[in-house]
From TrEMBL:
SUPFAM superfamilies cross-referenced by the UniProt entry: Glyceraldehyde-3-phosphate dehydrogenase-like, C-terminal domain, NAD(P)-binding Rossmann-fold domains
Top-level taxon in the UniProt lineage: Bacteria
All residue ranges annotated as the Gfo/Idh/MocA-like oxidoreductase N-terminal domain in the record: 3-119
PANTHER family registered for this protein in UniProt: BCDNA.GH03377 (PTHR43818), DEHYDROGENASE (PTHR43818:SF7)
Protein name: Gfo/Idh/MocA family oxidoreductase
Boundaries of every GFO/IDH/MocA-like oxidoreductase domain copy: 129-253
Length: 326
């Protein structure tokens, strides 16, 4: 039988990525849509009954699972409510605005937290699997310098509503706290776990009138001596290339963060590795497949523990950035 799924949160990521992936997925039926904004509910169309809050979903025993495409200051409590109601959860990252705010998630029993998958969506991409294999096989070398430059939210004067949404998000934390859940999860997945230490960090306000910094960066040391240099930023009129590069004595690999195409240079020559389909659709479709597998008895991947680990690193870096600015 099809897994009956409710989508909670009909903002940009809900309407443009989660909902299409659910509609495309074999074995999934969209059973309900939830958003407090009536315009957003109207934009979602008539695929399923639409509600202004989650109460109807929690009361419906026929709904098996819930996708939470909600902001992090809402997600934490929603995870607790949905999971304790006996439903499976796919929750957008980050799962909270801070480790302290995530405390209710740590109180969930293992049998409940094992029903929670975290939307670290791009870990599912085959490019990540390929990079991990190259690292494990020593294709690049034993110790690597990884550079992660994550810039993907341009300041567009023609779209003031987008800029205001980003500024509102920044009021809840630095860019690294919001973007970091993705790329710190990538680094943990690729480099063998959480960082051993944060060596230094910085933050900067490109607009001195801004309430909080919009650019952040850090240098971290990972297991086996890998070094990662990370930068992320929002709200500049132009953006640097968004990419992750890995350099060792045997090779150099670059991941294009827009397409997830890979470039590899070794003594054997240069090559490009590309994967079928568009990156976002490919990753969200694979994420839904994993979520259906969870409902049908598999382990969550990425798990709530993975999401909390990425949040923990993001918060530690954000704190170090704030101390550096002070």
């Amino acid at each position: 039988m099809a897994v009956r799924v409710a989508l909670v949160g009909l903002g940009d990521i809900g309407l443009t990525a989660h909902l299409p992936a659910l509609v495309r997925a074999a074995g999934v039926r969209v059973a309900a849509l939830v958003d407090p904004d009536p315009l957003r509910r109207k934009l979602a169309g008539d695929l399923a009954p639409a509600y202004p809050d989650i109460d109807e979903v929690l009361a419906d025993d026929d709904i098996d699972a819930v996708v939470l495409a909600t902001p992090p200051w809402v997600t934490t409590g929603a995870i607790v409510r949905v999971a304790t109601a006996g439903k499976f959860v796919l929750a957008e990252k980050p799962v909270a605005t801070s480790v302290a705010a995530a405390a209710p998630l740590l109180e969930l029993s293992p049998n409940i937290s094992d029903h929670v998958q975290v939307g670290l969506t791009y870990r599912h991409d085959p490019a990540m699997v390929q990079l991990r294999e190259w690292i494990a096989d020593g294709v690049l070398g034993e110790r690597l310098v990884v550079r992660a430059h994550i810039y993907d939210e341009r300041l567009d004067p023609a779209d003031p509503a987008h800029a205001e949404r980003l500024r509102n998000t920044l009021r809840h934390g630095l860019p690294v706290l919001h973007e970091g859940s993705h790329f710190f999860d990538w680094l943990a997945y690729l480099l063998g776990g959480e960082p051993m230490r944060i060596d230094d960090a910085w933050s900067m306000r490109t607009d001195r009138r801004a309430e909080v910094p919009n650019l952040t960066g850090a240098r971290l040391t990972y297991p086996t001596g890998h070094i990662a240099v990370v930068e992320c930023g929002w709200l500049t009129a132009g953006l640097p290339p968004c990419e992750v590069s890995l350099l060792g004595d045997r090779g150099y690999a670059v991941l294009d963060c827009h397409t997830f195409a890979l470039r590899l240079s070794t003594e054997d020559g240069d090559r490009v590795v590309e994967f079928p389909g568009e990156r976002t659709q490919r990753c969200f479709d694979r994420q839904v497949e994993r979520f259906v597998a969870l409902v049908n008895g598999s382990r969550p991947s990425p798990s709530l523990a993975d999401g909390l680990a990425a949040l923990r690193t993001s918060e530690q870096v954000a704190r170090a950035c704030a101390e550096g600015e002070a």
